[in-house]
Write a structure and sequence with these properties.
Layout lengths: L3 E4 L2 E4 L4 E7 L6 E9 L6 E7 L4 E3 L7 E6 L4 E6 L8 E9 L3 E4 L3 E6 L1
Length: 116
């Protein structure tokens, strides 16, 4: 059973930066895409950014120009560099992997809190 483990969350002041990492417990073959989602209190989980196996990247409008997603498929790892953080970025961040015949796994989440 593939498990994803996120790290790098924490408390940061507005304008600061954090880098999230997500690594799979075992090597994953045939990765289709890896991504980051977030869920703020009282809100639905939303897409932050996704990167496909061929390097196609997309972001939500709210993070474009501030966040950068990258991956190392050989290490089954995905990263999220978050710059110019805002209080509204406060949420639990989850990584996600789509592999093989559309198997999907989620990480347990890491808390990001941005103080004003």
């Amino acid at each position: 059973q593939v498990q994803l483990v996120e790290s790098g969350g924490g408390l940061v002041q507005a304008g600061g930066s954090l880098r999230l990492s997500c690594v799979a417990s075992t090597s994953i073959f045939s990765i289709n895409a890896m991504g980051w989602y977030r869920q703020a209190p009282g809100k639905q989980r939303e897409l932050v950014g996704v990167i496909t196996s061929v390097g196609s990247i997309s972001y939500s409008d709210s993070v474009k120009g501030r966040f950068t997603i990258s991956s190392d498929n050989a290490k089954s790892t995905v990263y999220l560099q978050m710059n110019s953080l805002k209080p509204e970025d406060t949420a639990v961040y989850y990584c996600n992997v789509n592999y093989g015949s559309n198997y999907i796994r989620w990480g347990q989440g890491t808390q990001v809190t941005v103080s004003s």
